[in-house]
TrEMBL record:
SMART domains, A to Z: CYTH
GO MF assignments: pyrophosphatase activity
Residue ranges annotated for the CYTH domain, each copy included: 1-211
Protein species of origin: Digitaria exilis
PANTHER family assigned to the protein according to its UniProt record, in alphabetical order: OS08G0299200 PROTEIN, TRIPHOSPHATE TUNNEL METALLOENZYME 3
Coiled coil stretches, renumbered: none
CDD domains for the chain: CYTH-like_Pase (cd07374)
Protein name: CYTH domain-containing protein
C-alpha cells in the first residue's frame, strides 16, 4: 500500500514560489512521460485500476529508464492518498516498442502483465492492450534537512503535470505517518506563503476525465 500526502497548488505562480523556497534542498529533477494501457472496453478503469508505463528522460526516443506500474483501488481523503501499487523495471527499448504497438505489452514476461491477465482478462487475444495516451510530468525532488525541524529527512516531490487540456501543480510526500507529515507540509507551505488545498483527485483521474479536477 502506497500512502502519500497530496497537496494541490492553484497555479504556476504558487509553483514558482514553492520551487524558489525549496531550491536549497533540491536533489534531482525528473522528466517523465506517463502512458496508460487498458483494453478497448476500459476494463481496468472500470475496476478502478490503472496500468502505467513511465519513461524517464527529456528525449522521447531515448528514455534513460522505464517503469511498469499497476495501481488499484485508490482512495484520496483530506489530502491523504492510499493506493495498492506494484512496480517493476521495464527495458526502455521494450517500453517504446509497446507504446508503438500496445498489444505487444501482453506478451511481455512480467508478473504485473500476468496478474492483469489473470485477474482482469486483459492483455490476451480476446482483450489486447490499447494505449489510452497519457501526460508529461516534471518532478523536482527535495530532501528536508535538520534546519527544517521535525520535517528533517522527508523527501518531497513537486510536480508540474502537463495534460493536453491544461497544467496542474501538486506537492507529494510518501510516508508511513500521514497525519504527522501532512501537518509538517502544511506548516512549510504556510511559512513559504504558498496557497494550497487538499487534492481531491489523482492525475489519472484528471486524465480520464479530460479536464483539470480539484
Amino acid at each position: 500500500m502506497e500512502v502519500e500526502i497530496k497537496l494541490r497548488l492553484p497555479d504556476a505562480a504558487a509553483h514558482r514560489r514553492l520551487s524558489t523556497y525549496l531550491l536549497p534542498r533540491l536533489r534531482r529533477t525528473h522528466a517523465q512521460r506517463n502512458l496508460f494501457f487498458d483494453a478497448a472496453a476500459r476494463t481496468l478503469a472500470a475496476a478502478t485500476a490503472a496500468l502505467r508505463v513511465r519513461l524517464y528522460g527529456p528525449d522521447d526516443l531515448a528514455p534513460t529508464r522505464a517503469v511498469l506500474a499497476l495501481k488499484r483501488r485508490p482512495r484520496l481523503v483530506a489530502g491523504v492518498s492510499r493506493v495498492e501499487e506494484i512496480e517493476e523495471p521495464l527495458d526502455p527499448a521494450l517500453a517504446l516498442a509497446c507504446a508503438d504497438d500496445p498489444a505487444r505489452l501482453g506478451g511481455v514476461d512480467s508478473p504485473i502483465v500476468r496478474l492483469v491477465a489473470d485477474e482482469y482478462g486483459v492483455g490476451g487475444d480476446a482483450a489486447p492492450f490499447v494505449c489510452l495516451g497519457g501526460f508529461r510530468n516534471t518532478r523536482a525532488v527535495y530532501e528536508l534537512g535538520e534546519e527544517d525541524g521535525e520535517g528533517a529527512g522527508l523527501v518531497l516531490e513537486l510536480d508540474e503535470t502537463r495534460f493536453d487540456f491544461g497544467t496542474s501543480y501538486e506537492l507529494e510526500c510518501e510516508t508511513a505517518e500521514p497525519d504527522r507529515v501532512k501537518a509538517v507540509l502544511e506548516r512549510l507551505l504556510t511559512v513559504a506563503g504558498v496557497p494550497y488545498e487538499y487534492s481531491r483527485s489523482n492525475k489519472f483521474g484528471c486524465f480520464m476525465a479530460g479536464k483539470l479536477l480539484p
